[in-house]
């Protein structure tokens, strides 16, 4: 016959296991809703009036032929390629912040293999963060 302490331990183990299984149930309705929203956010062209991702606008309009008519090495391209820059006259805090994030990630990747480069990435990240925080950015 089992002792009361063993029976109590078995009961507690059973209850804690049931709690873990209950906590790990997935909300598939929420996951599906977010997946559809993600795919709506990836659309290009003229967007429908009901576009739920408010910051995404019409894109890739009337320029596909020019872009896709050129399949060659960049060194051989003779078509115009617009280049944009970020400076005090052309602010872009979003670009500076993304650059800072990429440099922070690079510093982690190279921390063991190339500590000097990792440290340089952190220095450049700090400069990019400062640029992103400027009021004119």
TrEMBL record:
Family annotation (InterPro entries): 6-hairpin_glycosidase_sf, 6hp_glycosidase-like_sf, Glyco_hydro_9
A GO molecular-function annotation: cellulase activity
One Pfam family matching this protein: Glyco_hydro_9
BP term (GO), one: cellulose catabolic process
Glycoside hydrolase family domain: residues covered: 28-64, 66-123
EC number: 3.2.1.4
Keywords: Carbohydrate metabolism, Cellulose degradation, Glycosidase, Hydrolase, Polysaccharide degradation, Signal
Top EC class of this enzyme: hydrolase
Gene3D superfamilies per the UniProt record, alphabetical: 1.50.10.10
The keyword Lipid biosynthesis belongs to this UniProt entry's keyword annotation: no
Position of the signal peptide: 1-23
Catalytic reaction annotation: Endohydrolysis of (1->4)-beta-D-glucosidic linkages in cellulose, lichenin and cereal beta-D-glucans
The keyword Signal appears for this protein: yes
Family: Belongs to the glycosyl hydrolase 9 (cellulase E) family.
PANTHER family with a match to the protein in the record: ENDO-1,4-BETA-GLUCANASE
Identification of the protein by name: cellulase
Source organism of this protein record: Lolium multiflorum (Italian ryegrass)
